[in-house]
Amino acid sequence: MMATRESAEVLALQVLGWLAGHNELLPVFLGSSGASEADLRNGAQDPIFLGSVLDFVMMDDAWVVEVCDQINVPYDTVFQARQALPGGEQVNWT
């Protein structure tokens, strides 16, 4: 089932909340993205920023498993949500 933009934003906000509470991983996200803690609050309103949060989490399968287990969603939900946000469209070159 494909995510709607609204459901993708809700899921991304849940992932952002999980990330904000993850004391070991949050500094990695902030360092790799160049975002500040203030950007986290402001980015919660921005679908492009939310997409970047999902992109970051999808860099490591263990992170996907951890967040999905924490928020109680199937493991492919993060990928489906990412596709529904700006910049997450599947590219078809044929």
Labels describing this entry:
94 residues, 6 helices, globular, mainly alpha
Q: What proportion of the residues is helical, as a percent range?
A: 55-70%
Using only C-alpha atoms, the radius of gyration works out to: 13 Å
How many domains? The number is: 1
Termini, distance in Å? 24 Å
**Please, how many helices?**
6
Number of strands: 0
- The backbone outline, from C-alpha atoms, is globular
% residues in beta strands:
under 5%
Please outline the major beta sheet: none
Report the structural category: mainly alpha
Q: What do the pLDDT scores average to?
A: 91
The secondary-structure element order is: HHHHHH
The low-confidence parts are none
Describe this structure in words.
The chain has 94 residues and is an all-alpha fold. 65% of the residues lie in helices and 0% in strands. The chain is built from six helices and no strands. The mean pLDDT is 91.
Question: How would you summarize this macromolecular structure in one to three sentences?
Answer:
The protein is mainly α. It has helices at 5-20, 26-33, 37-43, 47-57, 61-71, 77-84.
